[in-house]
């Protein structure tokens, strides 16, 4: 299991904590509590209860027969995180962290959100646990994603439009940390991706690792062996961290992270410090962040989780890119061949699988992580195709 | 001795409190850097904190963040700021302190940064997103170049933490008066005076108060129990408006604080 990878808050040279002192002391408390609960049977029983009864786990490992026959080559399995409640893998982490928050005595949950998926998942769990919930969202994002704002409000959350800087995800993150520093007596910051200062990357990876815990057992049962490769999209990297975690020590299983060509942090970035942690960063020569351009809002991020920086540098992980056009194509191919509309984020993993599977033999198997469903993207794809 | 520490102690010896204004380099264009610094120097400030704009300024409040956005928009970079400063460094008689985030310094290369910064008149550096535990990344190079690494000390930290940071800080101790980020505020909470005296008891390096100081009254209030003050957002705001009277009044207030 991957926990052995992390040492003093670092995955190899990446991770750590680069935050003002007053944030650090709150993070230390969270790290301490997380260390207590992660192997605690009572905690895990409670988490497993909610994962099963509320989120609907386990999710299927579905053999995509039509796609496999169409492509020729490796057998393709889809890990169906899109069937999780709220429609993506995000809820796995949210349920874990909200139970951690309860243990710490928090009465109030805060979170950041970019496109709104993590905000919706957080608002959902907060509603179910009867906790007060505030979601920080860049002012520009609240306009672009008005429906998700309404969704969160419907679930009883307060959505704060952050109108500073560029009014995007990073301003929302800053504002959430400020809130945490001020209100940590009763408030827990539920971070959504495998990024940020330690211990967040480790916490998110831990709670997302249920994906590969299940897929590994499911694949062994169906095929009597481990897969040739696991493929997942990488933005901040939470779904990929979860999809890879239980295979990291299985050295014959190839781990392939797929980045958008317009936000290819590992492929085109270099090491730096961003948002409180050290990792690969898309930056110019002066160390300023570069703008990203990706059709999937959930991958539109100039940094990447430290686990992926480490897997890349150690050679354990392979990181590749696909273009927006390939992604749009994959979105339609999976919809038509299997009747599954994948999120644009997940379509990055599908797009690479379309190229990769035919290069393998029928004895090979690959798992493609379908991190979320594509209903949220249908309008956008409609516009994109119309203007093509 | 540290030039910054010496400048602060000398101001105190003359019966005044130290006054360090913060400016955002490149706000209004880099060509404003020279006249702004020389005019502040003429007003009798003790040192000047020069902000380097960055795309991800996690410790800045809205006023300074917006100034940073303006500065970046007109092409300001760390390299250009250092070059501009080096062009008139011989006219600068007071120490400059760079406030920059870690990533631009790492991208520049810490060894080269330390050398170029010293040539530009910079004698101290504040890096708000670099914790003490990671300071080996930059401290040896800064030390070799004769540049102080100033620590921010939050009043809400534990006494052990405050003591550790205070003892590590060079030049002066940047005591953060409020929770959170930079920016003007209307009132302050808690028993600040005893807090500051406690911090000063750990060291002979002067303790200055910063974050949220925006009026001549604040300057006097904090000056009465510290070696001086740092004023950021209010200066940035006044410079953007061209309101030099407001700046002059703040500086004057630092010279009228009765000695403790």
* Strand content range of chain A: 15-25%
Terminal-residue CA separation of chain B? 25 Å
Question: What's the number of structural domains of chain A?
Answer: 2
Give the overall shape of chain A, derived from the CA principal axes.
globular
| C-alpha termini separation of chain A | 45 Å
Going by CATH, the architecture of chain B would be: Alpha-Beta Barrel
Report the top-level CATH class of the largest domain in chain A: Alpha Beta
Output the CATH topology of the largest domain in chain A: Rossmann fold
- Percent of residues of chain B in beta strands? 15-25%
Largest sheet geometry of chain A = 6 strands, mixed
Modified residues (N6-(pyridoxal phosphate)lysine) (chain A): 90
GO molecular function, one term (chain A): tryptophan synthase activity
Domain Tryptophan synthase beta chain-like PALP (chain A): 55-372
Cofactor (chain A): pyridoxal 5'-phosphate
Give a written overview of the molecule.
- The complex is a heterodimer of chains A (388) and B (260).
- Chain A is an alpha/beta fold.
- Chain A contains 16 helices and 15 strands.
- In chain A, a hairpin with a 2-residue loop joins β2 (10-11) and β3 (14-15).
- The mean pLDDT of chain A is 94.
- In chain B, strands 1-2-3-4-5-6-7-8 form an eight-stranded parallel β-barrel, surrounded by nine helices.
- Chain B has twelve helices and eight strands.
- Chain B is globular, with a radius of gyration of 17 Å.
- In chain B, α10 links the parallel β7 (207-210) and β8.
- Chain B is of the alpha/beta class and 260 residues long.
- Chains A and B meet through α1, α8 and β12 of A and α3, α5 and β5 of B.
- Chain A: Keywords: Amino-acid biosynthesis, Aromatic amino acid biosynthesis, Lyase, Pyridoxal phosphate, Tryptophan biosynthesis.
- Chain A: GO terms for molecular function: tryptophan synthase activity.
Task: Characterize this entry briefly.
The complex is a heterodimer of chains A (388) and B (260). With 388 residues, chain A is an alpha/beta fold.
């Amino acid at each position: 299991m991957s926990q052995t990878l992390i040492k003093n808050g670092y995955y190899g040279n990446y991770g750590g904590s680069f935050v003002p002192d007053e944030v650090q002391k709150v993070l230390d408390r969270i790290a301490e509590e997380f260390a207590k609960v992660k192997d605690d049977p009572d905690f895990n029983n409670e988490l497993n209860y909610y994962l099963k009864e509320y989120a609907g786990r386990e999710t299927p490992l579905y053999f995509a027969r039509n796609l496999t026959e169409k492509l020729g080559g490796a057998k393709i399995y889809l890990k169906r995180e899109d069937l999780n409640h709220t429609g993506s893998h995000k809820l796995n982490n949210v349920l874990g962290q909200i139970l951690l928050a309860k243990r710490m005595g928090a009465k109030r949950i805060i979170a950041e959100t970019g496109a709104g998926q993590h905000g919706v998942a957080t608002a959902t769990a907060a509603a179910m646990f009867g906790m007060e919930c505030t979601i920080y969202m860049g002012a520009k994002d609240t306009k672009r994603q008005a429906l998700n704002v309404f969704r969160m409000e419907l679930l009883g959350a307060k959505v704060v439009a952050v109108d500073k800087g560029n009014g995007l995800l990073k301003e929302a993150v800053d504002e959430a940390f400020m809130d945490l520093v001020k209100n940590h007596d009763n408030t827990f910051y539920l971070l959504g991706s495998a990024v940020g200062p330690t211990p967040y990357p480790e916490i998110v990876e831990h709670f997302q690792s249920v994906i590969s815990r299940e897929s590994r057992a499911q694949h062994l049962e169906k095929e009597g062996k481990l897969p040739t490769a696991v493929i997942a999209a990488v933005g901040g990297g939470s779904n990929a961290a979860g999809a890879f975690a239980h295979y990291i020590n299985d050295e014959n299983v190839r781990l392939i992270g797929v980045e958008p060509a317009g936000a290819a942090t590992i492929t085109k970035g270099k090491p730096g410090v961003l948002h409180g942690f050290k990792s690969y960063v898309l930056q110019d020569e002066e160390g300023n962040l570069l703008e990203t351009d990706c059709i999937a809002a959930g991958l539109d991020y100039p940094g990447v989780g430290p686990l992926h920086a480490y897997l890349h540098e150690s050679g354990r992980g392979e990181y590749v890119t696909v273009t927006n056009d390939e992604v749009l194509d994959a979105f339609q191919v999976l919809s038509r061949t299997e009747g599954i509309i994948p999120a644009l984020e997940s379509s990055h993993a599908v797009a690479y699988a379309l190229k990769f599977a035919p290069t393998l033999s029928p004895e090979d198997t690959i798992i493609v992580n379908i991190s979320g469903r594509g209903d949220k993207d249908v309008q956008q794809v409609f516009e994109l195709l119309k203007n093509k | 001795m540290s030039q910054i520490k010496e400048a602060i102690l000398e101001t105190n010896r003359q019966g005044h409190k130290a006054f360090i204004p913060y400016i955002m380099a490149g706000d209004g264009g880099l060509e404003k850097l020279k006249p702004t610094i020389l005019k502040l120097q003429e007003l009798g400030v003790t040192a000047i904190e020069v902000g380097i704009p960055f795309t991800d300024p996690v410790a800045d409040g809205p006023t300074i963040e917006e100034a940073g956005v303006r500065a970046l928009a007109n092409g300001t970079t760390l390299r250009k700021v250092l070059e501009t400063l080096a062009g008139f460094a011989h006219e600068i008689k007071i120490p400059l302190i760079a406030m920059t985030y870690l990533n631009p310094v790492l991208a520049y290369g810490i060894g080269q940064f330390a050398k170029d910064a010293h040539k530009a008149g910079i004698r101290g550096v504040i890096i708000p997103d670099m914790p003490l535990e990671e300071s080996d990344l930059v401290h040896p190079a800064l030390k070799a170049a004769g540049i102080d690494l100033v620590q921010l000390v939050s009043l809400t930290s534990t006494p052990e933490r405050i003591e550790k940071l205070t003892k590590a800080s060079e030049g002066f101790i940047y005591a953060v008066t409020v929770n959170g980020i930079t920016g003007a505020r209307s009132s302050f909470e808690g028993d600040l005076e005893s807090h500051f005296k406690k911090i000063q008891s750990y060291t002979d390096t002067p303790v200055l108060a910063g974050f949220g100081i925006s009026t001549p009254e604040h300057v006097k209030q904090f000056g009465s129990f510290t070696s001086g003050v740092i004023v950021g957002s209010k200066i940035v705001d006044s410079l953007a408006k061209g309101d030099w009277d407001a700046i002059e009044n703040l500086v004057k207030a630092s010279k009228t604080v009765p000695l403790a």
